[in-house]
């Protein structure tokens, strides 16, 4: 077969870019989920207390408490969820391996049925079935995907992804509190928190769009819209409760 150096170099560069892109995309869900929830929930605390005209020290106390408690809860939730998926994948893998051992003809027919449904037929279908079933590990992998919908995502590292979610939550979630931790005039603190929160949401949205290669404006628009909507609700609740309860500031 004739070799084409330019084509091979282009293919190698394409594969290298795909590898790095997939590594980033692997964790973008954790970064966006943790970061967005961190910003929104912390700024909701800031907006609610600002709407109720509570003291700045109250904002800091409630904000930090939310940052730690909710961040740990989110990270632990991701860890437990992924570990459950991982355990299920291991259990099903053992079951499929045993079924192949006990009744290979039925399992081979299941492979044939799955690929016939994909449009394979005749000699090509038989070659595909023979190739897959020639290696037990490959056979099990195919059965996991075709019969149970289990892919490589079940092999994610639960501890690492849980830490990624927590770190993203803590990093982005701390941004709305910065004006309350710095010597900013009281009258400007909420406005500064609003501006820094909007900027952080924009950064998170741009990051999502860049990594997922979607339209550049889509990520920022969605994340900022949801974040500011939640903040507006929290501010309104704080203002209404202040008037309803008659809080003395």
TrEMBL record:
It is found in: Endomembrane system. It is a multi-pass membrane protein. Signal peptide: none annotated. Keywords: Membrane, Transmembrane, Transmembrane helix. The chain crosses the membrane at residues 54-82, 163-182, 188-211, 223-245. The keyword Transmembrane applies. It comes from Candidatus Peribacter riflensis. One of its GO terms (molecular function) is manganese ion transmembrane transporter activity. GO terms for biological process: intracellular manganese ion homeostasis. The keyword Transmembrane applies. InterPro entries: Ccc1_fam. This is Integral membrane protein. GO terms for cellular component: endomembrane system. It holds the Pfam family VIT1.
């Amino acid at each position: 077969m004739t070799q084409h150096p330019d084509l091979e170099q282009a293919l190698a560069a394409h594969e290298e870019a795909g590898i790095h892109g997939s590594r980033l995309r692997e964790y973008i869900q954790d970064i966006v989920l943790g970061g967005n929830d961190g910003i929104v929930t912390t700024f909701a605390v800031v907006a609610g207390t600002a709407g109720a005209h509570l003291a700045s020290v109250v904002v800091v106390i409630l904000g930090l408490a939310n940052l730690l408690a909710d961040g740990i809860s989110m990270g632990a939730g991701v860890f437990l969820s992924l570990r459950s998926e991982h355990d299920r994948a291991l259990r099903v893998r053992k079951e499929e391996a045993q079924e192949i051992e006990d009744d290979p003809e039925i399992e081979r027919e299941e492979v044939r049925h799955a690929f016939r449904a994909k449009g394979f037929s005749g000699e090509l279908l038989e070659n595909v079935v023979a190739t897959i079933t020639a290696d037990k590990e490959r056979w099990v992998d195919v059965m996991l995907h075709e019969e149970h919908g289990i892919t490589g995502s079940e092999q994610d590292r639960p501890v690492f992804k849980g830490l990624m979610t927590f770190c993203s939550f803590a990093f982005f979630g701390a941004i709305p509190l910065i004006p309350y931790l710095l010597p900013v005039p009281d009258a400007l603190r909420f406005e500064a928190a609003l501006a820094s929160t909007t900027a952080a949401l924009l950064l998170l949205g741009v990051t999502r769009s860049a990594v997922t290669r979607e339209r550049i404006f889509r990520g920022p628009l969605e994340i900022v819209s949801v974040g500011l909507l939640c903040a507006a609700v929290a501010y309104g609740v704080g203002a209404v409760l202040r008037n309803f309860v008659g809080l003395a500031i």
